[in-house]
């Protein structure tokens, strides 16, 4: 119904002739260039204002546009520009090499002269999103949505322990097969898929170790389940959108979803 109403309003002849648009003409929507190797073109973002967990209230997220692999780092709060640059070097560049390009929003850390000067010295191009146009870095925004959805689901009953198991959320995200590549991020970067959860289920002689593995398995299963649900939901949305566009092109505005 919403799509039908939108098309009806947009097709109003009187409104089109008498009302003036109040926004600037939209520019051409051009996708970001396709990288040629893993971790050469990155997106970075912060997830802030989370419930306090072991003094952490923020997550630093770095995503590889080629393999869709991600790094999730818990922080006690939004870092300064220099601290954010050091995080990138110590937790991303150190393992995957210096990239060619970094895309970010216009947060205070990313628009500062320190951030730009740091990466200029390393020969890394720094690109900022257009204001109020997050579609420029759509892959990053989608990854943030998936991680946030998992955290909301898991932290509903464990709001003070999300930072403890954030590593398993990253492991689950990097084990999720991507529809764009047909591979998991692990396979794309490493060439193989590590065991999803190598623990055999046999109890340990050390109670503390046994408890840690049981909790980790529960968290990993929850993370992987939520990410799979998010992937299926995204596929259904894409199919529905494609069917709606096809129906309009063929002159059948009433058919908005697939059978």
From TrEMBL:
InterPro entries: Integrase_cat-core, Retrovirus_Pol_polyprotein, RNaseH-like_sf, RNaseH_sf
Signal peptide interval: none
UniProt cross-references to Gene3D superfamilies, sorted A to Z: Ribonuclease H-like superfamily/Ribonuclease H
PROSITE patterns (alphabetical): INTEGRASE
Entry's Gene Ontology BP terms: DNA integration
GO molecular function: nucleic acid binding
Domain (Integrase catalytic): residue spans on this chain: 34-193
Protein name per the record: Integrase catalytic domain-containing protein
Organism placement in taxonomy: Eukaryota, Metazoa, Chordata, Craniata, Vertebrata
């Amino acid at each position: 119904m919403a799509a039908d109403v939108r098309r009806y309003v947009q097709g109003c002849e009187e409104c089109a002739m008498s009302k003036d648009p109040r926004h600037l003409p939209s520019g051409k929507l051009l996708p970001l260039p396709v990288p040629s190797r893993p971790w050469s073109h990155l997106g970075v973002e912060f997830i802030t204002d989370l419930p306090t967990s072991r003094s952490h209230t923020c997550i630093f997220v770095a995503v590889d546009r080629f393999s869709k692999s991600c790094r999730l780092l818990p922080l006690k709060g939004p870092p300064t520009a220099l601290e954010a640059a050091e995080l990138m070097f110590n937790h991303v560049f150190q393992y995957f090499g210096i990239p060619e390009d970094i895309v970010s929003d216009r947060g205070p850390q990313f628009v500062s002269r320190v951030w730009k000067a740091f990466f200029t010295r390393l020969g890394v191009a720094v690109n900022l999103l257009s204001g109020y146009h997050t579609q420029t870095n759509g892959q990053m925004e989608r990854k943030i949505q998936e991680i946030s959805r998992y955290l909301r689901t898991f932290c509903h009953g464990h709001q003070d322990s999300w930072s403890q198991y954030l590593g398993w959320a990253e492991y689950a995200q990097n084990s999720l097969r991507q529809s764009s590549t047909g591979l998991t991020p692990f396979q794309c970067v490493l060439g193989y898929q590590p065991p999803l959860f190598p623990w055999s289920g046999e109890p340990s002689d050390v109670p503390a170790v046994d408890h840690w593995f049981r909790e980790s398995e529960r968290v990993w299963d929850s993370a992987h389940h939520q990410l799979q649900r998010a992937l299926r939901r995204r596929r259904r949305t894409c199919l529905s959108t494609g069917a709606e566009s096809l129906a309009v092109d063929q002159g059948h505005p009433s058919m908005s979803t697939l059978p």
